[in-house]
Hints:
- By secondary structure, the chain is of the alpha+beta class.
- The protein has four helices and eight strands; from the N terminus they run E-E-H-E-E-E-E-H-E-E-H-H.
Amino acid sequence: MKRPDHISLDAVQDEPVTFAFDLPFALAALDREPLQELSPVHLEGQIARIEGGYALDGRCSFHGKLECSRCLAPYAFAVDEPFSLTLLPRKAARPEDAELSREDLDANFYEGDELAVAPIAEERVQMAIPMKPLCREDCLGLCPKCGADRNAGPCGCAGEEADPRWGTLAEWKNATRSQKG
């Protein structure tokens, strides 16, 4: 029996088989702190038989909201990217000290006669979410003293105070300048 989020590999014979899925993901299941909203992930493409496995050429698209790592404001983002995967059957368990070949590093593995697409979509989402998302390149962030959003304008706090740990270096710099002058 075919499951709704799987591709039947038995159906892939001489001609490629096309597919399209809309996969919803719970934010808690993705466990990515900056992610605030996520649309269902649209995954489409085709899968073809190749020697030793299958080739999957697809397109992944989704949108949502991320939290800026500097100012903490939510902002919209969208991803629409093509990708390709080589799918190989999972081999029997290897001894722990077995060396991986180059082909093993570039391939995804499947078991049985169906391919689950949810893990593929989740991997695409995880790879697309930046480690430090920014609402814009020149985001000024929050004031460390009062917490005001510097993108909205100056906060009125006094100028930046130097870290006291750099005091000795500042004294040396001033002494060096006065010796030259």
